[in-house]
């Protein structure tokens, strides 16, 4: 990723415009009707390509919880029950497109997920069988999640080499 311009403001037509990070949500969905409650990941249809935790941008006028439920439905066709707000990830380089702040939720669902919206495919994964080509900082997020879920690092997902150069 190219270095970010850290100038927080720009001036257009004598008006000051502040450049702020963009809020996003990611939802770690546990399938509670399956043995070991595997999680759902999507294979992205759009760049950056690879596997990702379902999620996306928060729409104007939407709460974080509403955004999480909407994104989960759009990308997995699953109705979710939010369990908790898990963690916030704010590394300015976490998304190659722009500076985002992701609020990660834990959720449970039942049923058969189906790829929708910007998902090329959908996968159901146990911790020992995660895909290697994870997008963004999702390898780190999943490592934190499994630390939380099992109380130790059962697996440390690999962060793929960036494929968006």
Please state how the strands of the largest beta sheet are arranged side by side.
6-3-8-7
Tally of DSSP helical segments = 2
Name the assembly state.
Answer: single chain
Strand content bin: 25-35%
Mean pLDDT: 89
In angstroms, what separates the terminal alpha carbons? 7 Å
Poorly predicted ranges: 154-165
Structural class computed from helices and strand pairing? alpha+beta
Please provide the ordered H/E string of secondary-structure elements: EEEEEEHEEEH
Main sheet characteristics: 4 strands, mixed
- Rough outline: elongated
According to DSSP, the number of beta strands is: 9
Q: Which radius of gyration do the C-alpha atoms yield?
A: 16 Å
Helix percentage: 10-25%
Summarize the structure.
With 165 residues, this protein is of the alpha+beta class. 16% of the residues lie in helices and 33% in strands. The chain is elongated.
Describe the model.
The termini are close together. The model is unreliable at 154-165 (pLDDT under 50). The protein has helices at 64-76, 138-150, and strands at 9-12, 15-18, 22-31, 39-44, 51-52, 55-57, 81-89, 100-109, 119-125. The longest helix is centred in the middle third of the chain and has 13 residues, at 64-76. It has a four-stranded mixed beta sheet with strand order 6-3-8-7, with helices on both faces. Strands 5-4-9 form a three-stranded antiparallel beta sheet, with no helix packed on it. A two-stranded antiparallel ribbon has the order 1-2. With 165 residues, it is α+β, with helices and mostly antiparallel strands.
């Amino acid at each position: 990723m190219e270095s970010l311009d850290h100038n927080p403001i720009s001036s257009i037509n004598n008006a000051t415009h502040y450049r702020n990070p963009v809020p996003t949500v990611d939802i770690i969905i546990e399938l509670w009707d399956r043995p070991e409650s595997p999680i759902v990941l999507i294979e992205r249809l759009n760049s950056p390509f690879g596997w990702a935790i379902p999620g996306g941008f928060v729409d104007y006028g939407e709460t974080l919880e509403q955004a999480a439920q909407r994104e989960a439905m759009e990308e997995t066709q699953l109705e979710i029950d939010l369990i908790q707000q898990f963690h916030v990830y704010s590394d300015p380089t976490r998304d190659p497109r722009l500076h985002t702040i992701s609020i990660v939720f834990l959720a449970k669902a039942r049923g058969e997920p189906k790829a929708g919206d910007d998902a090329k495919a959908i996968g159901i994964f146990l911790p020992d069988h995660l895909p290697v080509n994870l997008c963004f900082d999702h390898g780190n997020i999943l490592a934190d999640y499994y630390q939380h879920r099992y109380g130790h690092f059962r697996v440390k997902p690999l962060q793929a080499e960036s494929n968006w150069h």
